[in-house]
Write a structure and sequence with these properties.
CATH architecture: 3-Layer(aba) Sandwich
Number of helices: 4
Order of helices and strands: EHHEEEHEH
Structural class: alpha+beta
């Protein structure tokens, strides 16, 4: 398996993978946009934004999964306010539990270290137990819970 920086040719796979995860979260809350192009727009952002990066896992010419991340600045009260924030990790269901997500996470950790960034952060859906287990197994710790309130 090769982990490489995502390219424009990967856009259809990234969009499809984004939608797989978004559909899981849409079942629990309506905060995620439901349009035909939501996955494409999100994936294009990773390719076009100077503050974002994406990696794909590829094997024998097949995309297995992708990871998207953004540079993020935390409040100034944090010891080191600059982080690399993982915003999306998605692996095709038939390739899960085979180390694909771990390989992608290791790549973004390596990238962050090269950029002299000390922390890698992420958010995970409260009901996404497989993802929480994956992140814990990769050394992440829960230090906060993100909550949402809808203004009506």
């Amino acid at each position: 398996m090769e982990i490489r920086k995502a390219e424009r040719k990967d856009l259809p796979f990234m969009s499809e993978l984004y939608e797989i995860v978004a559909n899981i979260y849409r079942q629990h809350h309506d905060i995620w946009e439901e349009t035909e192009n939501a996955g494409k727009r999100a994936s294009l952002n990773y390719l076009n934004s100077p503050t974002s990066i994406a990696f794909v896992a590829e094997e024998n010419g097949n995309i297995l999964g992708f990871l998207g991340a953004q540079y993020k600045t935390l409040p100034s009260t944090f010891k080191n306010p600059f982080t690399m924030h993982i915003t999306d990790v998605s692996v095709y269901p038939k390739h899960r539990k085979k180390g694909v997500a771990t390989a992608l996470i290791n790549k973004v950790k390596e990238y962050a270290k090269e950029q002299k960034i000390r922390y890698v952060t992420l958010d995970v859906g409260v009901l996404n137990e497989p993802a929480k287990e994956c992140y814990t197994n990769n050394g992440f710790e829960t230090i906060a819970h993100e909550m949402v309130f809808e203004i009506k």
